[in-house]
Design brief:
The structure is a single chain. This protein has 117 residues and is of the alpha+beta class. It has a single domain (7-116), classed as Alpha-Beta Barrel (ADP-ribosylation fold), CATH 3.20.170. 30% of the residues lie in helices and 32% in strands. It contains four helices and seven strands; from the N terminus they run βαβαβαβββαβ. It has helices at 16-24, 46-61, 73-76, 99-104; strands spanning 7-14, 39-40, 64-72, 81-83, 90-92, 94-95, 106-116. The strands form three sheets. It has a three-stranded antiparallel β-sheet. The radius of gyration is 13 Å and the shape is globular. This is ADP-ribosylation/crystallin J1. It comes from Actinokineospora cianjurensis.
Length: 117
């Protein structure tokens, strides 16, 4: 996780449907979660995001993307880091109902940095 004085860099592996909704937001927001998705989980390192996009999204959707974005660091303090596996399998768990406010604290655009097919 790269952090400067004001923002923290986060990563999100995503499939084509979610990416299309991000594109429709003009690259400024993540879409609301579906009923079966109670949390939004950005990840804290690029390698972990790549593994999910390549190894899960590609087999399930034919394509996987890795996005990068920055969020106000102060806002992230309410979401403790979750270790979802090994030492580098780190995520933030943002409850679905918090996502509109989380989106408000995104600084700059959401960027696609990798594509896997």
């Amino acid at each position: 996780m790269v952090q400067n004085e004001n923002t923290t860099e986060l990563w999100r592996p995503t499939g084509p449907e979610e990416l299309d909704l991000v594109r429709r937001s003009n690259w400024t927001a993540w879409p609301p979660r579906l009923p079966e998705q109670p949390i939004f989980y950005p990840v804290l390192n690029e390698d972990y995001a790549i593994r999910i996009a390549r190894d899960w999204n590609v087999p399930h959707h034919g394509v996987g993307y890795v996005t990068r974005f920055h969020v106000d660091t102060a806002h992230l303090q309410r979401y403790p880091v979750q270790q979802a596996g090994g030492r580098t399998i780190l995520e933030l768990w943002v409850p679905a109902e918090d996502l509109p406010e989380f989106n408000h604290h995104i600084v700059g655009p959401i960027e696609v940095v990798h594509e896997f097919r």
